[in-house]
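Here we describe the complex-level prediction in full. Unlike the single-chain runs in Section 2.1, the two entities below were treated as one system.
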Amino acid sequence: MNLGVLLVDDEPLIRSGLRAIIDAEPDLTVLGEAEDGAAVTPMVRRLRPDVVLMDVRMPVVDGIEATRRLLANVDFPPRVLVLTTFENDDYVFDALRAGASGFLLKRARPDDVVRAIRLLAAGDSLLFPAAIRELAARHAPAQAPAGLDSAGLTDREAEILRLIAQGLSNAEIAAQLIVSHETVKTHVAHVLTKLDARDRTQAVIRAYHTGFITPQDG
Amino acid sequence: MPGPRELLAIPASRTTWRRYAYLVIGAALVAPYPTLAGFVAPALEGGFGAVAAWVVAIAVCCVALPIATGMLTAVRELEIAAARLLLGVEVGDAEMIHSEVSLSTRWRSAAWFVAHLVVGGVIGTLTVVLPPAVVSAFTAPFATGDVQLGQLDPTVPGGPGSAWIVPLALLSPVALVYLAAGASALLARLAPRLLGPSPAERLAAVQRHAMRLAERNRLARELHDSVGHALSIVTVQAGAAGRVLDSDPTFARRALTDIETSARNGLRDLDHVLGLLRDDAAARTPTPTLADLQRLLASTRSAGIHVAAELTGRVDDVPQAISSEAYRIVQESLTNAARHAGHVPVSLSLNVGAEHLEIELTNPLDASRPHRPGGGRGLNGIQERVMSLRGQVSAAPDAGQWRIAVRLPLHPKP
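The structure predicted for the assembly as a whole is:
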């Protein structure tokens, strides 16, 4: 399967570097480049990429707003992988809250860049669970956990949500709970539906945000 | 209150004797004033009569003059240094003390100076008078006639009947030490109130400190952004070049050039900001203002950049806060010009009007270096400064020139 990628960054040298790294992979293709968030939605409509690599800070429309617009206006939107220079960037968490599926440091090794793109497209496990936990810890909500009670997760589903937050893939969850892979897939699908989350990252962000999982649990 | 153990330790304590020295200095400082009164009074006697002459001489020489002395900044600094060294009290940090001295602060230092003189004078006099009195007291039991106690007036009859005076004489120096320790402890407690900064000075110092911290934070953020940006480019380009070295050597070669440029820009930013931080540490006060502009231009020129400057209006009329910000704006504009355009001639015009200060800096655009969208990170600093002063800034190419224009209101409305 060939995965299409859209690059969005205001720095041409970052775009050209990432393009060279991605195009060197047989299964990945850069379909286009944008230098500002404003161009993302029309380009996605036209090029239909599977993954958008999106810089957080851009001069006109930043990565957070671009992600929000993309998810609101495009049917079956691609996954958004947020690019950041700094790990402890507050904007990254905002971008994840806005619907990005993961984030990637610009200093990541080329192998990690392509691995992240493939992982995100497959949607089978959470990207950088520890980093997401740390981000969530710094943005921990003040109020008591209440938000997810109404989501009506079963005990088993809640347990699986915790394992997802730890970064386990479906296969790993199946091994840990001694159930079949198919069962796990069904549970995960239920969790996502009940949380109204489009992927694991969004489910975990919501779980942290509502206090259903506290970063200390991990 | 000190416990018995501490009370016993007083005569052996180093602090006691250091503080004693402080009091003796006070005694030495007292001496000129009555001496002067002694000279002045006879000169006045002809005009005022003896009593009035002495009253006037003492009022002027022993009251007004010490107060006036105590109001001198130099005396204040000396007293603070002595209090710190000998009394062992901290009266506030150095910066607050060296800030401009207000009138109320001068009165407080005068009060301190007078207290130092009075307490020091009393203890000093006792220190001089007591030893001969003690020595003569020892001779009393063996004497045949009346014994005068040193220079003191009361006499003690000679003979064994006066043996009681011996233990008293032995105890009196110890009592003096305790008296001195007590008096200097009181002074030490008083010192922060009289020598320390006033609430207003403390507030001003805290504000200065906060401003400096904010400035440092801004620089740190700038550094974080610009160096982080440069290193990200270096990492991505180097990673990419490694991947495609065999398949696309042209890309790899270009990547090496970009890596070199980005790394160099990052280092230059690092150098620039560290330089500012160092300046900041070396010259905490005063911050440079437009009055220092010529020096800035000279150092820019010595770095090989040709600057044509045209200054109109009186820079001395610009309020201090705006003047120092304007200085930084010019400094950052010059740095930006050097960074982005290299060694091109720069022209600076600065005009102080009635209502506004206008700064304009132009340099020819380097056609070989395309303007980078979203670049110009050094510009952020200038924009932040201009915003905080409620001014306007524009920076854009204009007829083959890069032109940055700043307009600051001289009397911004809050």
